[in-house]
Each structure stands twice: as C-alpha cells, then as structure tokens.
Input
Amino acid sequence: SAVISQKPSRDICQRGTSLTIQCQVDSQVTMMFWYRQQPGQSLTLIATANQGSEATYESGFVIDKFPISRPNLTFSTLTVSNMSPEDSSIYLCSVVVIETQYFGPGTRLLVL
Amino acid sequence: KQEVTQIPAALSVPEGENLVLNCSFTDSAIYNLQWFRQDPGKGLTSLLLIQSSQREQTSGRLNASLDKSSGRSTLYIAASQPGDSATYLCAVSGGSNYKLTFGKGTLLTVNP
Output
C-alpha cells in the first residue's frame, strides 16, 4: 500500500488568486495522478504527473490553469491558478502500487 | 468514451442486512475495476481490485464480482453494520495507464 499526505487539507481563497497543493508519498512510485471532485459529483482525472517531464492533461484541463510539478518519485504539486468559484472542489492525488490505486485525503478548496 | 453508472444512488438498510451495490460500464475493454469507499470529509479507501481476467474478489464481509462481457460489477456486503455507512464508488481503468473513470457512487446508510 501507500501512505499519502496532502497539504493544505483545506483552504478558502479569493477569486483571482492561486493555490498550490502538495502531495507527498511514503515510497517511490511511478504513476501519480491528480483528480478533482466537484460538489455532489464524482471524481474526474485532471492529469498524470510525470517525473522529469511535463504532465499529461485530460480533455478540458490545461497547463496554464493547473500547472503540475513532479520533481521526484515521492512528491508532486498541483497549482490552481487564477481561481474562480467554479474551482471550489476537493483535489486529490493518487498513486498506483502493485496495480491498486491509493488516494490522498484530499484538499478542500472554497473560492469566494 | 467510458461511462460508469452506479445504481442505486442511495440505499438505506437496517443493520444486519445483506446488500448489493451495482456498477455498470459502457466499454467492456477494461484493464481492471476498483471499488472504493468515501467517508464524509475524507479521501477514498480502496476496498477491492478486480483484474479484467478475474470473476470476483473477496475481503472479509465484502465480495465484488465482475462480468466484463456484460459491463457489470456488483459489490456484496454481508451482515451490514452502521460503520459501513459511506459512499461507495466504482471505478474502471481502461489500460495499463491506470487512468480511472468513476461512477457517481452509492450513498449507503446502515441504521442501527
């Protein structure tokens, strides 16, 4: 399994600002992802965080809005840029260990 | 595009009852299927992983089945307990990239 921590656990932000979310894993993993869960909805994949190269974004998500860093095999950051109230969501990172996907506790973001 | 549907959206049962949660997916070419539970304000906990070549997996009181050809999976919970109350999510992976497509979940309430 994997133990994943995220910082911050929650935040309230003003429109137009940016927030960087950190994801730390207790072991080296190859596959790491960022998901979003909007209020009342299920999870949607934002991007695959690739170590040493640019992230791979899903349809509807762009690097300018959600820049991702992956400096090593245990850490990644997701930035939510130029936020609007529509960005209010839970943001979760996940990793794959022996075929099973494990999720962090999530970052609860409210944009006013 | 893969779509995952979970029925029912909500279920309320008395303690001790056996129950079945349903998950269907539109594209049968899946790599694996995973069941998660999500507690309010928390992240996701992995319950069971079924590979595409498998028919079922068991863990304690939980049993998950997979019928890939018909695009269906069920999660059977035996002798339900109030602690089982949570949202149960079904997710499928389309390949070894491990990208998950989630259903909207079933909100389970087990009444003491």
